[in-house]
Amino acid sequence: MYFKSTRDDSLAFSSSEAILTGLSPEGGLFVPDEMPAFDRTFAELSALSYQDLAYEVMKLFLTDFTEAELRDCIDHAYDEKFDTPAIAPIKEADGAFFLELFHGKTIAFKDMALSILPHLMTASAKKCGLDKEIVILTATSGDTGKAALAGFDSVPGTRIIVFYPKDGVSPIQKKQMVTQPGSNTFVVGIEGNFDDAQNGVKAISGNAELRAELAEAGFTFSSANSINIGRLVPQIVYYVHAYVSLLREGKIADGEKINIVVPTGNFGNILAAFYAKQMGLPVRKLICASNENKVLFDFFRTGVYDRNREFHLTSSPSMDILLSSNLERLIWLLCGQNAQENRKLMQELKETGKYEISDAMKAGLESFCGYYADEEETAKTIRKIFARDSYIIDPHTAVAACAYEKYREDTGDDTVTVIASTASPYKFTHSVLSAIDEKYDAYADFDLIAPLQELSGVPVPGAIREILDAPVKHTTVCGRDEMTAVVKGFLGV
Fold first, then answer.
1. Alpha-carbon distance 60 to 51, whole Å?
2. So which residues are the catalytic ones?
3. Distance CA 134, CA 123 (A)
4. Is the pTM of this model over 0.85?
5. Is 354 in a helix, a strand, or coil?
6. What is the C-alpha to C-alpha distance for residues 244 and 236, in angstroms, rounded to an integer?
7. What structural domains and CATH numbers belong to the chain?
8. For 385-444, what is each residue's pLDDT tens digit?
């Protein structure tokens, strides 16, 4: 299999080349030249461990990796750093199945892919004979940053620079990042929001003159954001895992369709579910859940993508995004895989902040529907599910649960449904507990760790315990126009 750019039909990269490059030279995203189909039955897949299932899915995309190379990456990624042997257990509550994707080292779903990306990247570097140090440039809305930092910490031949909106993440998310050890790690707060950070990273990565300057100094850029195909492919695995787990437990019949609800801002997590459906996973509907930054909700309702709107800081900060980069991969498919047409739309987005897809393209959205939850609805959902099931969810998962409730009310659809639970409530203690009982309003996030443990019955994760007294190591803050200088400074160029 080769990977093409969404903006240039003439480019073709092997999977290892695409993983190393991250973003195509002209700014496009890498997409598989054909969508593979599962080559084993779901009954067969249901008998496998998560690690073996990951191999069976990922081998279909990463075809230039040998079995030994790919299994080595998988075995190093999905090991004891996850606090449950199931890797991604499923909990039944509120009439749905919550796929808990937060049992990794940094207690967010980003661990599911960022635990393996460093291994895929270093293996790719060896396969491609790369003789330069890899510089990972990453923008984060809260969770990707820490997961990437943890994944690449002290990995030989790599350095990682993470930019985050200094006032746009939760206190615990920020503490996780700024206490990150490792001589190859660098964390920078920017004066702006996530979109500013993401645009800055893309601009730096796409700067040919800067890339040439760094190449002379022995560096090459790559990305740990979900624009990297090495992030997207591992995410497909957990949707297949959810399906075969339900099959194994007798919750569904073989071939029975399910719905999947995903809280998303950058669109990568739900795109992975869509890829799984294209591969043959029996999925009826993909429900895209947005918070008050509902640019994706509006897109699915109107066919117009318009980022020209007020930016909201919410209790679900990882979704506080108005520029959903991974949507481009879907747009490319809707264009009939026409890179030229896709490039026109992306240029229109860059110049005007909006674009509208054609009626023919809108017809290709039948797998999706969009819903959103405002801040009040998000808090109400957390409170309701706790009262009914004694199950505590974080605000991002609550956005998804609220979206699903609205979907059921609108459609009456009783299809078995999986909700992607993307973060531990321990990352958002204040938002969670104040939603359950207003008496917690006056407390700071870190003061609510013990009360959350008492209410939930879930032990405090190691990811929280290790940062309580950890010293702050990263204090750099810069403006949006200073990001390039900051990168060069860290690299000594």
1. 15
2. 110
3. 12
4. yes
5. strand
6. 13
7. 90-108+230-460 (3.40.50.1100)
8. 999 999 999 999 999 999 999 999 999 999 999 999 999 999 999 999 999 999 999 999
